[in-house]
Automatic annotation (TrEMBL):
<feature type="domain" description="Carbohydrate esterase 2 N-terminal">
    <location>
        <begin position="63"/>
        <end position="155"/>
    </location>
</feature>
<dbReference type="InterPro" id="IPR040794">
    <property type="entry name" value="CE2_N"/>
</dbReference>
<keyword id="KW-0732">Signal</keyword>
<feature type="signal peptide">
    <location>
        <begin position="1"/>
        <end position="18"/>
    </location>
</feature>
<protein>
    <recommendedName>
        <fullName>Carbohydrate esterase 2 N-terminal domain-containing protein</fullName>
    </recommendedName>
</protein>
<dbReference type="Pfam" id="PF17996">
    <property type="entry name" value="CE2_N"/>
</dbReference>
Length: 158
């Protein structure tokens, strides 16, 4: 496995700019994310295996190749992702702070992309964290692909 790029957004004491082109806060669990901060995954330089593209007229970070890892740094108590899911979506693995890797299947049986939220952890200590995400070869048997279209990271900033 190789880490081909680091996507760092230091939102530690800074005011993060929420995405305004669509109200997405209703997609996340209000109990775990009472005041979520949404960050677009727009890296300052290209990351091998990941590319900026457009889904339904919104910028997304598309991952196609198994093993290529992106990282996101944040400070907060919970973390999630918004992805466009369809019948070509795959399975990702994610790790927080170097802990074991967990799988998240983002497949949907829809032919058209649908925005979905996935809470990755909601019991974090209020400190700096690093989220790593990678596409894996394993896929849902119903999926015709293994890609991920990452629209946003979201986290609880306290």
């Amino acid at each position: 496995m190789r880490i081909v790029g680091i996507f760092l957004l230091l939102v530690l004491g800074l005011t993060a700019q929420a995405q305004t082109n669509q109200d997405v806060s209703n997609l996340v669990d209000g109990n775990d994310f009472p005041n979520p901060v949404f960050i677009s995954p727009d890296p300052p330089k290209p990351i091998k295996g990941w590319e900026m593209t457009t889904v339904l007229e919104e910028k997304v970070l598309q991952g196609e190749y198994p093993g290529d890892i992106i990282k996101f740094r944040f400070k907060g108590t919970a973390i999630g992702i918004l992805v466009y899911s369809d019948n070509t979506s795959g399975i990702i693995e994610y790790s927080i702070d170097g802990q074991p890797w967990f799988e998240q299947d983002v497949y949907s049986d829809n032919e058209k992309p649908e925005l979905k939220s996935y809470t990755l952890d909601k019991d974090l200590k209020n400190r700096k964290h690093t989220l790593q995400i990678r596409v894996i070869e394993k896929k849902n048997p119903e999926s015709s692909g293994s890609s991920i279209a990452l629209r946003s990271f979201y986290f609880n900033k306290e």
